[in-house]
Design a protein that fits this description.
Length: 383
């Protein structure tokens, strides 16, 4: 196991720069997830760490040692790909042991490691089968097993769950979580799926177009996104974004209001220019359906999604914007109904025109600003 450090890492393919100077420190034993839309540079970054892709500029350090010029095979890492890349003509046992054998590992040691990995992944009964006789999930386990037997200093995963069906993905997510805890290994995991990132990571690195947008624990990113991109990327359904303009309330405090009917009073230290255009971000669980009468924010229900445990209500606002409201449990709400919406101002986010956060209405201290659901989530994650 080892720590990892990236110092101003740049990647150019010909004249095209795709990674623009990434700095990152990963602690020994940490599970870090790189997340971002397709094409943002996740795989390229991972392949540079692995030594499969030359680094244009900057440094990669593993366990404090600069490895820019160290060949992939000598970095002591193991990578698991989305395509399992198993040898079809070899048994599972052979697929697991092959790498060690070619490195000249003692036979008894190889046997022990294969048995242990198979045990951890619960594939011992499958050792004599060939990949063709396995399900997709079982094949993915073998691919992970092949990484485990190498006892790498760092595990690198490139979207290893993307080929699995939804149910199996959830199951493998839980298994990977357990595996990480059991091995205590440093793991870098790449995905485009924010739910996967939220559930697996100690820390998430959000990438966009070759730049790190934000690094933090899942709840740090959820509660305090640094910009519009992260705010919109983390969380499902997505955070609501409503256009608004800055002004001053009758009480002298800064205020933002918009054509939708949104009207929020902000902390006095919020830095907004008069008439500055902003975007107000509010998560669906921080909105509440109330009676239309007397509500400042009103609209018409377009769709109600009844999921059983919660209900998502899509409300068309007078500005033409849509707000999604999350209701815990089941609610009798029908399309066409006129409703009011109450905003939990304490957990609203104010973004400037350039997308960066300029205010979090009365949310200076994040524990105070947390809504109950977020707090429960935090408590649940500590258990
Ligand atoms: N070998 C290559 N040659 C040229 N461009 C590449 C190569 N590999 C990746 N790219 C480009 O680099 C960018 C990042 O790609 P990639 O790291 O695969 O993204 P992700 O894994 O996040 O989907 C993309 O614009 C992609 O087209
Ligand atoms: Mg990729």
């Amino acid at each position: 196991m080892a720590s990892l450090e990236l110092r101003n890492v740049v990647k150019r393919f010909g004249n095209v720069e795709v990674i623009h100077g990434v700095d990152l420190s990963v602690d020994d034993g940490e599970f870090v997830v790189f997340v971002g839309p397709s094409g943002c540079g996740k795989s390229t970054l991972l392949r540079m760490i692995a030594g499969l892709e030359p680094i244009t500029a900057g440094d990669v350090l593993i366990g404090g040692e600069r490895v820019n010029d160290v060949a992939a095979a000598r970095r002591g890492l193991a990578m698991v790909f989305q395509s399992y890349a198993l040898y079809p003509h070899m048994t599972v046992r052979k697929n697991l042991s092959f790498g060690l054998e070619t490195m000249g590992a003692p036979r008894a040691e190889t046997k022990r490691r294969v048995a242990e990995a198979a045990e951890v992944l619960q594939i011992s009964p499958l050792l004599d089968r060939r990949p063709g006789q396995l399900s997709g999930g079982q094949r993915q386990r073998v691919a992970i097993g092949r990484a485990i037997v190498r006892e790498p200093r760092i595990f690198l995963f490139d979207e290893p769950l993307s080929n699995l069906d939804a149910e199996l993905r959830v199951q493998m997510r839980v298994e990977l979580n357990k595996l990480h805890r059991r091995l205590g290994a440093t793991m870098i995991f790449v995905t485009h799926d924010q739910v996967e990132a939220m559930t697996l990571a100690d820390r998430i690195v959000v990438l966009r177009a070759g730049v790190i947008e934000q690094v933090g624990t899942p709840l740090e990113l959820y509660n305090r996104p640094a910009n519009l991109f992260v705010a919109g990327f983390i969380g499902s359904p997505r955070m609501n974004f409503l256009k608004a303009e800055a002004g001053t309330g009758r009480d002298g405090r800064p205020r933002v209001a918009g054509a939708s009917g949104i009207d929020l009073s902000l902390e006095e230290n919020t830095l907004l220019q008069p008439a500055e255009k902003v975007t107000v971000g509010i998560r669906p669980e921080h909105l509440k359906i109330v009676s239309a009468e007397g509500a400042s924010l009103t609209g018409e229900v377009q769709i109600a999604e009844h999921l059983g445990g919660e209900t998502f209500v899509y409300v068309l606002l007078p500005s033409g914007e849509t707000a999604v409201v999350e209701i815990k449990g089941q609610a009798r709400i029908r399309p066409g109904e006129s409703v009011g919406i109450e905003v939990d101002a304490a957990v609203s986010h104010i973004f400037a025109a350039d997308g960066t956060v300029t205010g979090q209405s009365r949310a200076g201290d994040d524990t105070a600003a947390w809504s109950r659901p977020a707090q429960q989530l935090a408590e649940a994650s500590r258990q």
